[in-house]
Amino acid sequence: MPEYSDHFGPEGLRVRGTVLVVPGRGETRAAYARFGRRLAADAYRVRVIDAPEIDADDLTGSLAGFGAQLAAALEGTAAQDGAVRPVVLVGADTGAAAIAALLGLEEAPAAWRPEAVVLAGLPGHTATVVGDWDEELDVRTFCPAHRGTLTEDAGVRRGSLQDAVPDTLLRAAYGEDVGVPALVLVGDADPLADRDAVARTTKSLSRARLSVVRDAHHDVLNDLQHRSVAAEIITFLETLRNELTSVITVESSAW
After folding, report:
1. pTM for this model (two decimals)
2. What would the pLDDT profile of 117-126 be if each residue is shown by its tens digit?
3. In a 3-state reduction of DSSP, which class is residue 119?
4. What SS3 state is found at 180?
5. pLDDT in tens, 153-184
6. How far is Cα 124 from Cα 135, in angstroms, rounded to an integer?
7. CA torsion angle for 191, 233, 227, 158 (degrees, to 10)?
8. Fewest CB within a 10 Å sphere: which of 36, 73, 110, 201?
């Protein structure tokens, strides 16, 4: 039986949408508790699932399994009238790559298909040596609270950022249009990111925005700037509900 981490909005408020969060290499659901609570505070139903398992020798089968995982997770959030839409998938690292690759398939299942995606910390093709645990933490995040969460979590697989990301997965993630509005997030201090590839892919997507987070590292959802990143995502979610029309425009500013 699959296990999930669920976060619910304040009692009495109407749910504004459903967010499924997909972790990346070495991470557990616990890494996204703070992130989930923050989105849920704005009345979104948030469910964190386990990181997808990708077999480099069977990408199609792996993605099919991942799609089934998403479908089951979404079905579990459904009330009498079904899951609350819009449904948005938020992926980090290989979780983001798996989402992009799966949505790029021509015959993606309709049952779990989202209205939008957030792709955070897409990994590049080039492997990076991250060293010992302290060095891996420096690659991931400079947030003391999140460093503590990762260090104290016995389920975290240390050294996982040195695992090679299957090239077939990255080609699929960078090479196809996800077909739905996308917010792409990358830290400008992320040594695992290929900024040029991320920028090219974002421009090639039909409806996408690239947001670069100043001084953020690979775990861009959980770095020192996590409040601003969560605010950027909430703004995206609210814009999505308004047919991609910004609710607020800046008419005049001195900064």
Report:
1. 0.96
2. 999 999 998 7
3. strand
4. coil
5. 999 999 999 998 999 999 999 999 999 999 99
6. 19
7. -40
8. 110
